[in-house]
Structure formats: structure tokens, C-alpha cells
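Input (structure):
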């Protein structure tokens, strides 16, 4: 089969799971390599799917499986779930950068990452500051094509309980577009559309624009 080869990290999460569905269904991709700490169980078999089961601090052990064209990073946690700020930073900063560094060396040309609304290195909030730091570090790596997606609250059915996010999702449903919850499926669709377009340089998609990009419409 001809087509792009995708590398996906975070396939067991809400956005990552939607990315996996879309990538496996896309005629543009001939292979999808899922990088995960545990094997992903899917109904049926898909000949496109490959899995690289590894701890993210040992990615070099599976480097031969990480040769691809487009890299999708949907890794992310919360400080509460991580248990500490240090562990949160490891998952949301160190792991995405480690994946980016290795796959770039192996020839990948596009990298997409799920960041967050309000991401900024100068933010007074630790969460937003870490997101801003990973964005800046990725931009400094010189990717030919880099997609950064900054959703507000992510809407969708999670396999884990996040009560605060569920409450926020309901409260913000009628908020201005900037703050309104964004469907995980729309984030995934927007990521794939931007990757396939592979525009040179950095493409930053703010939360309010994600549904438009997901629908294939350009946003100025």
C-alpha cells in the first residue's frame, strides 16, 4: 500500500482514540504506529495498525518502529492524576519532546500536538506554563511542518472519571466561542486535516477555530 505512515502517541486517551479511528479509516495512511505503555485492544483486526509498546523514557528501544511521516502527540494528564507537578511535567513536557526529537531524527516531516487554551511560557498558572514551554521547545526544533492545537475543555466520553472537566464542560456550553468545549472528534479531525495539508512552518489552531479546521475550512 502507498500512503503516509503515522506515529501516534496517546491513543488510549480521549483525543488520541479519536485520532486512531480517523487514521485507520483514512485512505491517505497506509500504516499507523501506536506508541503506548500498554497494548491497545481494538475490535477486529486492521492491517494498518502496528504497536510499539514501551515506556516513554525508553523510546530508543523501539526506534526501528518509529520511522514515519506524520507524528501525532495526544499525550496529556492532570496534576491531580499525575500526583505531582514533577510527574505532570514529565508526561506533558518531557515525553512529547522526546518523541519529537527521535522521530525528527528518523525523518518525520510533520508533528501535531494537543496543547491547551491559554498556553504560555509566561503564564502564572503551572499547567498553562508547561504547555507554553513545550510549544516553544517544539518550535525551536525546526520541524518543516508543526501543528499546535489549543482546545478549551475537551468534550467526549472518557474511560476515566474527571468530574471537574465534566462540570466545566456543562458550564461552558453556552460560553463565547473562545471558551466553549470542543469535541475530541473535532480536535482529531483538525489534526489530521492540518497534517495532510502539511503547510510549511507553524500552524496554531485556537480552540474557537478547531471546528472549522475539522470541517476542512481554512481559518485566517
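Output (sequence):
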Amino acid at each position: 500500500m502507498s500512503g503516509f505512515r503515522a506515529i501516534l502517541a496517546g491513543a488510549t486517551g480521549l483525543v488520541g482514540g479519536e485520532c486512531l479511528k480517523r487514521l485507520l479509516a483514512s485512505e491517505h495512511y497506509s500504516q499507523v504506529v501506536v506508541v503506548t505503555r500498554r497494548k491497545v485492544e481494538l475490535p477486529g483486526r486492521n492491517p494498518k495498525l502496528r504497536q510499539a509498546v514501551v515506556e516513554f523514557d525508553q523510546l530508543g528501544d523501539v526506534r526501528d518502529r518509529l520511522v514515519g511521516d506524520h507524528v501525532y502527540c495526544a499525550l496529556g494528564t492532570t496534576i491531580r492524576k499525575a500526583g505531582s507537578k514533577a510527574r505532570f511535567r514529565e508526561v506533558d513536557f518531557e515525553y512529547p519532546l522526546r518523541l519529537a526529537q527521535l522521530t525528527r531524527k528518523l525523518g518525520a516531516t510533520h508533528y501535531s500536538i494537543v496543547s491547551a487554551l491559554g498556553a504560555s511560557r509566561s503564564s502564572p498558572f503551572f499547567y498553562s506554563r508547561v504547555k507554553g514551554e513545550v510549544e516553544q521547545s517544539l518550535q525551536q526544533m525546526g520541524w518543516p511542518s508543526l501543528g499546535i492545537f489549543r482546545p478549551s475543555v475537551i468534550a467526549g466520553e472518557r474511560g476515566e472519571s474527571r468530574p471537574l472537566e465534566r462540570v466545566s464542560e456543562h458550564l461552558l456550553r453556552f460560553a463565547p466561542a473562545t471558551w466553549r468545549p470542543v469535541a475530541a472528534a473535532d480536535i482529531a479531525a483538525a489534526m489530521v486535516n492540518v497534517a495532510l495539508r502539511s503547510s510549511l512552518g507553524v500552524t496554531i489552531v485556537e480552540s474557537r477555530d478547531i471546528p472549522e479546521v475539522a470541517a476542512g475550512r481554512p481559518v485566517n
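Notes: The helical segments are 14-25, 79-82, 85-105, 126-139, 163-171, 184-197, 210-214. The domain at 4-214 is CATH 3.40.50.720 (Rossmann fold).
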